[in-house]
Each structure stands twice: as structure tokens, then as C-alpha cells.
Design goal:
The complex is a heterodimer of chains A (427) and B (450). Chain A is built from 20 helices and no strands. Chain A is an all-alpha fold and 427 residues long. In chain B, helix 19 (397-407) packs across helix 20. The relative contact order of chain B is 0.08. The chains are: A mainly alpha (427), B alpha+beta (450).
Chain lengths: 427, 450
């Protein structure tokens, strides 16, 4: 019944310019949030997945896309129906304690991730021969200036342009001249390998795609954009299209490194390795495109993560927030944002800094928080008082539960393998 | 409160007064209660065991039900959970709240009912909710709710919006103490619960300070307070506002406030006042205290006041202010204008420019107009008026009033027997001494804009 209605709606939308305009008006939060998913860490993970296991992990992208759509749609719907951020709702419905622990955990994890983004900026610029002592302060100042000086509308346009730069990965994917038949088959037919490395990368791919902070950011930006229930049906498509685009980009990153680095049998540990390895195999243009994509993705992440962090801390404590507000109106928001940028950029400028433990800590925290955040979201979207007629349907809940149990189990595995690196050694 | 809301945009001074008297009372009450530990915090009550008269445990407190959400919400029932059901016990059955909640009655005598849909639960409808100010901007969240027992009723007195509340709720009060976090309570009077369903609570007054009121209004408020509270309010004011407020008060209340303040504060306030006014106040305290206060004041200010103190305060010498503007007869007009610009006297002190010669003798008077229109190189003695009305330091206040009114003056110079200029009395100084006090304090017909 519901499906039929949705299908009809979809059909009607096809030839109606009014609908398209309405869709363009709400477009933004979904595509932006999903795109940032492929940040510096994401690109590294997908490159490694392609470089070490060829096309064989491509099939995971389909279930990941579905789960991502389910989770993001809940966050977007909550934002549109309640007009409040996720941290707002958690504080109001689950109390101070849980809010505080989630906030502290996310703060640490997000600062670590922001540092990783700046590391990505530094590494990508390094490939073009630009010193990190030049590019990192420069990037920090640009981010500062844009967020402090512009409003949500301009900022969103900048983010959408940054999302467009991911097309570089699609181009380098084609330039790598992959075996399209095998790639397609590997995407549609699941396969599995029982060995420690495969499991680690498999968990990593899922862990990097669905993160706690995304849910907070998406919901806050839906609220700040002012999307309400009457235009939510268009916003839903923003979310769905965003999830597809991000996984199409992931697909091409995996394909590019599978067709070249995997075939050549080179071992890599991060995204810059991948870009370097691409040069002799797919040409220097492909490598440059890959590096440029990494740069814009990392810059994008360095924008969004501090924003997202400031959003949910302010929501949790009840302080005013939002890039549309003046400094005087939302002082805590801007101070938090500036502090996170400052700390993260400063850490990268320390010569010979080793970030491995910081990254592992952030991975553990995110892994622990994700199931908590997902269960909170599930409880909130089923709260009739909050959501009214927009609560989850029974079938929807069934899928959300499967997703949560799946992601939860993988998150715990991720935490365990991070703490005990030899967990899978017995296999 | 409701009546006040219906007022037109310009409330009368009496309404403003009433409102702020209440506000200060509330503030002082709250400070008192915190000091005496009479406040019960909601999050401390939740989780307490409910013990009946027969020492039987009935359950643990889950929430509290209040009568209404508007003025002074009173607790009417205690809610506990029985399985999945929420049960309520009327608050009148509660004997005392200590480490547990003790009831007056046994379980079987207690009227236990199911909590209903339209009961207002404190924890559910207030705790963790968003506070927005009058501009609709988010300020902070409700960290806790403070109750107090007033006239045997258990009432919400304030909401906790500080870090101390956060630490208390996390069960880390000790850590909070170590970090020296401050208690921050907002009197319930400030709160206007709007859109409770949406979880938003509005503040009626945007964090306004008492100091923002005109001194006249503060003076009115202070007259209504008890002697001890007056001192507390004065300590909250900045020195300049305190000085201006003090000038508005009647001598007996002035005396009473000065008695309740520490010497440092009094000296700081006196420094901000005109010398004649501070001399008046120093006349009301004992000789020893007066000397000690003068010692604490800045040297130059103290000197002027001391000079005035030597005169009988019923005579011209006691009423006059030494802060006047005198110019020199042998200066040129240009030099005089430059001099005035440098010292930039207040309007009150520049009605007339009194001219003195080199032995400080009053020789003439000059209006600002005549000074400005004169050719810059002319000497003051060439342009001044030599006919200047003055009075002696020992003239009575009636004499001063008569002279001022006879010549239609705004100010009059005071000279000693040698004819040297000692001070100036302005028309408002004279009004203060001549008009009966009861007259002056009659309500004025004017508008007070918000």
C-alpha cells in the first residue's frame, strides 16, 4: 500500500517541474552529510580495500548503501518532525548523564578525526610539493573565515561544490581501465574470505561509512535549513541520492586501486600511498586527480566535523548554535568551533607527530558510541509523543533492528580488534 | 503577575516598584535559603525511598506532580513506579523529607492512585528542557529544579542552570567543589513556561541587573526593604549607582544604610558623590568613623569634604559645593575657553563662570555666551560683569533661598569675610533644603519607559 503510494508519488514527480524545484530547494543536508562520509579516512580505507583484496569487497557497498539510507533517513525525519537536533532530543528524553558521556566521547573522537582530516590535507598537498607548514594554517584560516563570515546558505553552496570534486575519483576509476565485467559481478555476488586481514578491512569499510557524528550533523543541518514535515518528502530524496552518490564514489575508489595496485601486488597503508602507486600504473594524471580528490575531501571533513561537534555540544547544554547566528548570539558555538580547528591544525604542525594511537582511540570510541546512538535514534523515532504520525512502521523497525544488530556486532569486533590486534590471528 | 502583564506599555512607577521589590525579595530569599540549606533539589529527591508510618518501604520516588505551571507551582503528589504503572501519593501524606521520604500514614490508609495523563510531572516537563530568553535565543538547559518549604507548602522556588547542578546530577559534587564551580539558580519568577510540550521555557526578564534601573527607582525599592537587606542590595550596586541612589534617599534611611555597610564600600561610594552631599552623610556618623572614612577616600576628594565639614551644615558653608568653576580675571578669553575645555565641567557647575583675581577674591561673573562671543585676545576683566551677587558662608538657608529667588539665579557664589570664593550653591541644593521632604517624595506624573 505504502509502496504503491510512494511509487505513484515518484511517477508524478517525474514530469513536474514544481516538484523538481521544491526538491532543489531542500537539497543539501543529505548529499553533504553522505559525501563527507568519504573523508580522508574513508578514502584510505577504500583504497586499501581495493589494493589488497581487489574487487572482492565491492559487494559490501550494496548492504552499506541500504543501511546508510535507513539510518540517515531516520535522522533527517526526526529533524524535520521535531525541529530539534539529535543531541537536543537525547538530552530531553534520556537525561543528562547519557548526553554527557556521548558528548565527551564524540568530542574526543571528532577532534581525532579532524586531526586526521588536516593530516589528509597535509599529505595531499605534499604530493604537489606544498609544505604542510604552509597549507595547514592556510586551510585552517580559510575554514575559520568562511564559517565565521558566511551564513548557512553560502556555506551549503560551498559544501555542495566540494561534493562535486568527488567526481575526480570516478574519472581516475575510468583511467585505471578496470575489468568492468569482474567489477560488476563482484558487486552483485557476495563473497567472503575467512582470514584476519580480510575481516579487518571488511569491518573498517563498514565502520568508516556509518559513524555517530554523521547522524548528529545531518539532523542539525536539516533543522538549521528549516526543513519541516511539509517538504520532508523532497528532503528524503536528498538523503537517498546522497547515500547512493557516496557509495558510487566508494565503488570507483575501490575499482581504481583494484585495477592497478592490486593487480601489481603493491602493499599500501594509506591514501597517499595509493596515489603514489597509481602514477606508474594509471598515469600521472590519474594520480594527481586521486590526490586532488583526497585534498578536497579532507578539507571538506575539516569543515564539517568541527561544525558537527559544536552543534551537538551546544544542543546538549542548551546553548544557541548555528552558522546563521552572530557571534554575540551563539558565543559558545563559535568558541568551540574555533578551538577544535585550532587544536587539530596545531597538532598536525608538530614535526614528526605520530597519530596512530589517537586514531586507534577515536576508532574505539566511535565503535562503542555507534550502537548507543543508533539505539537512541530507534527509540526516539518510535516515540509517538515526539514523532506523531511519523513514527517508524513495523517493517521499517524490523530492518532498523537488523541494521543495528549487524553494525553493533561489527562495531564491537572493530573495538576488540583495535585493542587486541591479534584477535583474528587464529583463523 | 497576570495583572501586570495586561498593563499598557508604560507601567506606572508604582508597578515597576512593586515588581522589583518582589524580585529583590526573591533574590535575597534564595540567597538566604541556599545559605541555610533549606533548598531541596529535584534530582536529590528522585530515587529516595518512600517509607510509610509503619516503617514499610512502598517504593522509590520516580517523579513529583505539581499543581500548575504558572506562579509558585506547588507539589501535590509523589509518584512512584509499581511495575510498569505510575502511582501517586498525595503530598499532604508526606511527613518529612530526609534521607528517605517518610509518610504520616500507613500504606493501607494512604490514598494511592494511578497517575493520570494530564498530571504535570516535574521531571518530565521541566528537567533538561531548553531555556530561551525574551529574544527567543537559547540560553541554557534546566539542570535541576529547587524546591523550598514555604508556609507548609512545597514549592518550586528556582531552577538550577549552573555547572554545580551538572556535577550534582552526575554524582560528582565533590569534584565540583574541588573545581570551585558556582551555584547558579534562577528564581522561578523569571521563568515563563511556554510551549512546555515543545520543551521550551522562556525567561521573562533578559538577565537584567538591578543597576540598570534609574537610581530614583532603586531608592523607592530600597525604602521597602528591611535594614539588613538594604545593605545587601547596596553591596550589589556599583559605586556610582550606589552614590546616586543614596542621594535620593531620606537622611534616616541614608544613615541606616551607611551603618550596615563596610567602611571601604562607604568610602568608595562617598568618592562618587558631590562633596556637599558626602559631607552631609559624614555628619550623620560618629566622629571616629567619619575620620576613618575620610582616610580611606582619595586625598583631594577628602580635602574638599573636610573643608565643608568645618561649617555648620545648616548654613551656606554646609550646603555649598566646592566643585565649582572659577576663571581668572587676567586670562584672555581664548585662554579661558582652552582652560574650560581641559577641565570640561558638568553643565550644573557651569551656569555661571565666577571670576577671581590672584588672591582668590571674587571680582566678577561671566556667562558662557559672553565668553564665546568675545574677541579671543580680550582679557576676562574687560568682558566680565562686575556686579556679582554673593553671600557669606554663615548665611542661613532661608537667606540663601530669598537671595536666589530675588535675583532669579541658577546658582550663587559663597564667599568668606575676606571676599574669597569658597564654594557655590546651585538652585537644586537650595530646593533640597527648603522644600519639605514629604512634598518631594510625592509620586510624579510621568511615564517610565521599559
Amino acid at each position: 500500500m505504502e509502496k504503491k503510494a510512494a511509487a505513484q508519488e515518484c511517477y508524478k514527480m517525474k514530469f513536474n517541474w514544481k516538484h523538481i524545484l521544491l526538491f532543489l530547494a531542500v537539497l543539501g543536508p543529505g548529499i553533504i552529510t553522505a559525501s563527507v562520509d568519504n573523508d580522508a579516512g574513508g578514502i584510505a580505507t577504500y583504497s586499501i580495500a581495493g589494493a589488497h583484496f581487489g574487487y572482492s569487497l565491492l559487494w559490501t557497498l550494496i548492504p552499506i548503501t541500504i543501511v546508510l539510507i535507513i539510518v540517515q533517513e531516520m535522522a533527517a525525519r526526526m529533524g524535520a518532525v521535531t525541529g530539534k537536533g539529535l543531541a537536543d532530543l537525547i538530552r530531553e528524553n534520556f537525561g543528562l548523564k547519557i548526553t554527557l558521556w556521548i558528548t565527551i566521547g564524540l568530542l574526543i573522537a571528532n577532534i581525532a578525526t579532524t586531526i586526521a582530516e588536516f593530516a589528509g590535507i597535509a599529505a595531499a598537498a605534499g604530493m604537489f610539493g606544498i609544505s604542510k607548514y604552509l597549507i595547514v594554517p592556510f586551510a585552517a584560516i580559510i575554514i575559520f573565515w568562511l564559517v565565521l563570515r558566511s551564513n548557512y546558505k553560502t556555506l551549503e553552496k560551498i559544501f555542495l561544490i566540494l561534493s562535486l570534486f568527488y567526481v575526480t575519483y570516478i574519472i581516475s576509476g575510468f583511467m585505471a581501465k578496470p575489468d568492468w565485467g569482474l567489477a560488476l559481478k563482484s558487486t552483485l555476488v557476495p563473497s567472503f574470505q575467512f582470514n584476519a586481514n580480510y575481516l579487518l578491512v571488511f569491518i573498517g569499510v563498514i565502520g568508516t561509512t556509518i559513524t555517530p557524528w554523521m547522524q548528529f550533523y545531518l539532523q542539525s543541518s536539516i533543522v538549521e535549513k528549516g526543513i519541516r514535515t511539509d517538504n520532508y518528502k523532497y528532503s528524503k530524496w536528498d538523503v537517498i541520492i546522497g547515500c547512493f552518490i557516496t557509495n558510487i564514489v566508494s565503488f570507483f575508489i575501490i575499482v581504481a586501486s583494484a585495477a592497478t595496485i592490486f593487480v601489481a601486488g603493491i602493499q599500501i597503508v594509506d591514501a597517499t600511498d595509493a596515489a603514489h602507486a597509481l602514477a606508474p600504473l594509471a598515469g600521472s594524471y590519474a594520480a594527481a586527480l586521486f590526490a586532488f580528490g583526497l585534498f578536497s575531501a579532507a578539507l571538506f571533513g575539516a569543515f564539517i566535523l568541527p561544525l558537527s561537534t559544536s552543534f551537538y555540544i551546544c544542543e546538549g547544554f542548551g546553548w544557541e548554535s548555528g552558522v546563521n547566528k552572530k557571534f554575540r548570539e551563539a558565543p559558545q558555538f563559535y568558541v568551540l568551533f574555533s578551538a577544535i580547528i585550532l587544536i587539530s591544525a596545531a597538532v598536525i604542525l608538530i614535526p614528526k607527530i605520530n597519530l596512530i594511537y589517537l586514531m586507534l582511540a577515536s576508532q574505539v570510541i566511535n565503535g562503542i558510541l555507534l550502537p548507543v546512538v543508533l539505539v537512541s535514534m530507534l527509540k526516539l523515532t518510535n516515540n509517538k509523543k515526539l514523532m506523531g504520525e511519523y513514527t517508524n512502521s513495523k517493517i521499517y523497525n524490523f530492518f532498523v533492528w537488523i541494521a543495528i544488530v549487524g553494525i553493533g556486532a561489527l562495531s564491537i569486533l572493530l573495538v576488540l580488534t583495535t585493542i587486541f590486534p591479534n584477535l583474528f590471528a587464529f583463523i | 503577575m497576570d495583572e501586570e502583564k495586561k498593563l499598557p506599555n508604560y507601567p506606572s512607577s508604582a508597578d515597576v516598584k512593586k515588581h522589583f521589590v518582589k524580585e529583590i525579595d526573591q533574590l535575597l530569599d534564595d540567597i538566604d535559603k541556599i545559605k541555610k540549606g533549606k533548598i531541596n533539589f529535584f534530582t536529590k529527591i528522585v530515587g529516595k525511598k518512600i517509607i510509610d508510618a509503619a516503617d514499610k518501604e512502598m517504593g522509590t520516588v520516580h517523579d513529583l506532580i505539581i499543581s500548575s505551571i504558572d506562579k509558585a507551582p506547588e507539589v501535590i503528589a509523589v509518584v512512584f513506579k509499581e511495575g510498569k504503572n505510575m502511582k501517586k501519593i498525595p503530598f499532604k501524606n508526606v511527613n518529612r523529607i530526609k534521607e528517605n521520604i517518610y509518610l504520616l500514614t500507613k500504606t493501607e490508609e494512604t490514598e494511592i492512585r494511578n497517575a493520570e495523563e494530564n498530571d504535570i510531572l516535574v521531571g518530565k516537563s521541566l528537567l533538561d528542557k531548553q531555556l530561551v530568553d525574551t529574544d527567543g535565543l537559547k540560553v541554557v538547559r534546566v539542570n535541576d529544579i529547587a524546591f523550598s518549604k514555604i508556609d507548609n507548602r512545597f514549592i518550586i522556588v528556582s531552577i538550577d542552570v549552573g555547572m554545580k547542578g551538572i556535577f550534582r546530577r552526575l554524582g560528582m559534587s565533590k569534584l565540583g567543589k574541588l573545581m570551585n564551580v558556582k551555584e547558579k539558580l534562577l528564581p522561578w519568577d523569571y521563568v515563563e513556561p511556554l510551549e512546555i510540550e515543545l520543551g521550551k521555557i522562556k525567561l521573562t526578564i533578559p538577565r537584567k541587573k538591578l543597576s540598570a534601573l534609574p537610581p530614583m527607582e532603586i531608592a523607592d525599592v530600597i525604602e521597602e526593604l528591611s535594614p539588613r537587606d538594604r545593605g545587601m542590595v547596596f553591596n550589589m550596586l556599583d559605586n556610582k549607582t550606589a552614590a546616586e541612589t543614596l542621594e535620593e534617599l531620606s537622611p534616616d534611611i541614608q544613615k541606616n544604610i551607611i551603618e550596615n555597610l563596610r567602611n571601604q564600600k562607604v568610602a568608595a561610594i562617598l568618592e562618587q558623590m558631590d562633596a556637599d552631599k558626602s559631607a552631609d552623610i559624614l555628619n550623620t556618623v560618629t566622629k571616629e568613623r567619619s575620620e576613618r572614612l575620610l582616610n580611606l577616600m582619595k586625598k583631594d576628594v577628602a580635602l574638599g569634604v573636610e573643608n565643608l565639614l568645618s561649617y555648620d551644615h545648616e548654613t551656606a558653608g554646609g550646603i555649598m559645593t566646592p566643585n565649582f568653576v572659577s576663571i581668572f580675571s587676567n586670562h584672555t578669553a581664548q585662554e579661558t575657553i582652552d582652560y574650560l575645555r581641559k577641565i570640561s565641567p558638568s553643565a550644573k557647575h557651569a551656569y555661571y563662570l565666577y571670576v577671581i583675581n590672584d588672591i582668590k577674591k571674587l571680582v566678577g561673573v561671566l556667562s558662557l555666551r559672553n565668553l564665546i562671543v568675545a574677541p579671543p585676545e580680550k582679557k576676562v576683566y574687560e568682558i566680565m560683569s562686575r556686579r556679582v551677587v554673593s553671600i557669606y558662608v554663615n548665611a542661613s538657608k532661608e537667606d540663601i533661598a530669598k537671595t536666589i529667588s530675588a535675583y532669579n539665579l541658577l546658582a550663587i557664589p559663597v564667599v568668606n569675610t575676606e571676599g574669597q570664593l569658597q564654594g557655590v550653591i546651585t538652585v537644586d541644593d537650595v530646593l533640597d533644603v527648603v522644600i519639605p521632604r514629604s512634598w518631594k517624595r510625592r509620586p510624579l506624573h510621568r511615564n517610565v519607559t521599559k
